[in-house]
Amino acid sequence: MKLQKQHIIMLLFAALVLGFAGAYAGVKLAQPGPASDQELAGNGAGLQNQGNARPPAKIQKVAQAYNLIKENYLEDVKDKQLIEGAIQGMVGSLEDPYSSYMDKETMKQFNQTIESSFEGIGAEVSKVNGKITIVSPIKDSPAEKAGLRPNDQILSVAGESVAGLNLQEAVQKIRGKKGTEVVIEIQREGVSEPFEVSIVRDDIPVETVYSEVETINGRKTGVIEITSFAENTADDFSKQLTELENKNIEGLVIDVRGNPGGLLTAVEGILKNFIPKDMPYVQIENPDGKVSKSYSNLDEKKPYPISVLINEGSASASEILAVAMKEAGYNIVGTKSFGKGTVQQALPLGDGSRLKLTFFKWLSPKGTWIHEKGVKPTVKADQPAYYFSNPIQLDKPLTYNDTGDKVKNIQIMLEGLGHDPERTDGYFNKATEATVKSFQTEHDLEATGKVDEKTAGLIETKIIEKVRDGEDDRQLEKALNILYQ
């Protein structure tokens, strides 16, 4: 089902999803917030002077600059270029990564992204400290399969630097038709040199809720993963929760790791299942400091224990859910979330373009503002080191006596695959050589003990498969086990 276009102005973006033309923090575009810069939503209450404020006298200075350029500049300049440049300049002067101008073409692309699917690499991106940054790859997307992860900085796309581009401009370079290939240059924290990732774009379906039953110590336990908060997410969540309860689950884990956010109405619909009516599930503060509180009609909590999973890719609407559940007394497991506590609305300018501006703060049930701080888990849990290994790029084969980050990365991967190199400090010793030979023999490669492109590619493929299979998902394991402690 398509999202209704009037809902565009009710989105609270945490990030733009690559493949969308705008921002997806909870829906699917690509910005920050977290994903997209998805707009989590507001109902518009408290908006003042929507385009009707009288401009100051000094606005004539802008008109004067316009006339001087038109009459004197060496080359011909189109009116549209000057007008849209002025708007972008005003928005840029706000120094707010969540406020942006979306021209008619960008809005057209954005409208396409709120269908049942979109074409792209499947990653939400944001602008963090002036850098185009991955908020989170979408589940089962080309970006996830290629190994992109939260906080990766995008340096260039198809050989062209994205430095100085706004979020929408960068996203338009990254998005593209299904089946086309794009090479993205990545800088990753803890890795000394940038590396390139080649990704084939695809259709990215907008499915947001996945559920299953795990058996923990003989107890049926429901696990519901929410990948973003879209129009139908709350209904899908309620339907799948009912199905789990009909299977007599004794506990529940809600997983919003890597979820960049989405519609406020969606997360509200989910929280109404868990937050009793004696406390608000979210508060919205307007520019005047006036706060409105939202409550459920729920008399009491669920009769079973619940844990919520978060990580650094959980943003915006995900953080609304996590902090509300935390303050209601539920366990939050994982690592600290992204930290987006503002609400945007996209307002029409009359020609098909829109101005997306930050209007509100959202606060936790107890009035806490998590912006740029994130939500801290009540139970910290980290993933194995190989979950954070990097794509392997070689100028020459790695061999005995080599040192550096590339060797360390290979050692961590081999260890994660069950081949013990005895050290992961970046020195290619004889034990590492023996471990490489063991891996090569296991996979019918020539046992040279050297890491060439073929060996490196297979090691990387096997690690990505293992991460995607969730074999050593320590965070989920912790969230499940603490339910019954």
Any overview of this molecule?
This protein has 485 residues and is of the alpha+beta class. Among the domains are: 209-339 and 362-384, 2-enoyl-CoA Hydratase, Chain A, domain 1, CATH 3.90.226; 390-469, PGBD-like superfamily/PGBD (Muramoyl-pentapeptide Carboxypeptidase, domain 1, Orthogonal Bundle), CATH 1.10.101.10. 27% of the residues lie in helices and 22% in strands. The protein contains twelve helices and 22 strands. It has helices at 60-72, 79-92, 104-113, 142-145, 167-174, 233-246, 264-271, 317-327, 405-416, 430-442, 453-469, 474-481, and strands spanning 11-12, 16-18, 100-102, 117-120, 123-128, 131-137, 153-157, 160-161, 181-187, 195-200, 202-205, 209-216, 219-226, 251-255, 262-263, 282-285, 291-294, 306-310, 331-334, 342-348, 354-363, 379-380. It has a six-stranded mixed β-sheet with strand order 12-13-14-18-19-22, sandwiched between helices. Strand 9 (181-187) and strand 10 (195-200) form a beta hairpin. Helix 9 packs across helix 11. Mean pLDDT is 85; it is low at 1-50.
